[in-house]
TrEMBL record:
The organism's place on the tree of life at top rank: Bacteria
UniProt keyword list: Isomerase, Rotamase, Signal
Transmembrane regions: none
Record's protein name: Molecular chaperone SurA
InterPro entries in alphabetical order: OMP_Chaperone_SurA, SurA_N, Trigger_fact/SurA_dom_sf
Pfam families xref list: SurA_N
Length: 315
């Protein structure tokens, strides 16, 4: 995956320096459906943008057919992410887009200009980023469900005996989720909703009063999420939760549901066998990162499994 990112970066930087000529011509956005994946359409406009993206990466061959295959896989991945309840927020995507520009010594307008001129568009690249981030989490979930780097109870006991019987300590968080709902058809209203969320967040002083404070505000959902040990926190929230003390709320995050924040109802320190297994498993996973070839094989097998179960109609 890292090699692919470097190639892409080099291609875009080269395009910027050379004043890339217009890429593959795009059809009008009111376009024809070319593939249906489990009932979800892929249009010739989508395919043309991906073909332009492949051209920007200096790929050779039948780019239209390659784009069709890639987008079919992408649709399967998105559907699997939805099944696993994996979402990547607009904030995360925009930050990654900005980092890509900064790391390659470009302004946002320069990067957007290159992508638009090549026929890719910034929106298509951002959705590509969103998918890469989300699919990485899906692969991690699959790895854990199949054993992955999980440490058995017996291994954890042996590890603790080596450490003189000392058990690792972790923090347990009791969390509450507050969502200021923004429908997909009303994303232009997200800045207003973000202001409303920040106003409520500023008054947050514990989970018991959240519902009362939210009364009178339209389309606000408050959910008690329960308890999570530090190692179980969702990746997109982990850093914020760990930086927030009990009785306070995290900063807001734009998600596909709207604008969200998490309230930290309570925290406590835990040190038991379950925590030991979680801590040791996390350490093992960090020390046991799969090389690119192995990771690619895992990815291919996962996608192949999804294809076997899917309904794919090519037109």
């Amino acid at each position: 995956m890292m090699v692919r990112k470097h190639i892409l970066a080099a291609a875009i930087v080269t395009a910027l320096g050379s004043g890339l000529a217009a890429g593959i011509s795009l059809p009008a956005q009111a376009s024809d459906v070319k593939v249906i994946v489990n009932g979800m359409p892929i249009t010739d406009y989508d395919i043309a943008r991906r073909a332009a993206f492949l051209k920007l990466q200096h790929k050779k061959g039948n780019l239209t057919q390659m784009a069709r295959e890639e987008l079919t896989d992408d649709m399967l991945k998105r559907q699997e992410m939805r099944r696993l309840n994996i979402t990547i927020s607009d904030t995360e995507v925009n930050q990654a887009f900005e980092r890509f520009a900064t790391n390659n010594k470009m302004t946002l307008s320069q990067l957007t200009g290159v992508l638009d001129k090549a026929g890719v568009t910034a929106d298509h690249f951002k959705e590509y980023i969103r998918l890469q981030m989300g699919w990485g989490r899906a692969l991690g979930t699959r790895n854990r469900s199949q054993g992955g780097s999980r440490v058995s109870e017996q291994d954890a006991v042996q590890r603790m005996l080596k450490d003189g019987g000392k058990k690792p300590v972790s923090t347990e968080y009791t969390l509450q989720q507050v969502i200021f709902v923004v429908p997909a058809t009303d994303r232009g209203n997200i800045a207003k909703r973000r202001n409303e969320a920040n106003a409520l967040r500023a008054k947050f002083n514990g989970c018991d009063s959240t519902r009362d404070m939210a009364k009178g505000i339209l389309d606000v959902t408050v959910r008690d999420l329960g308890r999570f040990v530090e190692q179980e926190l969702p990746p997109e929230w982990s850093k914020q939760v760990k930086a927030t003390s009990a009785g306070h709320a995290t900063t807001t995050l734009d998600t596909d549901k709207g604008v969200e924040f998490l309230g930290i109802c309570a925290t406590r320190q835990l040190s038991d066998d379950r925590v030991a297994r979680l801590v040791f498993s996390q350490e093992a996973a960090a020390a046991n990162q799969k090389p690119d070839a192995t990771a690619e094989a895992v990815n291919k097998q996962y996608v192949d499994d999804l294809r076997k179960k899917a309904s794919i109609v090519n037109r």
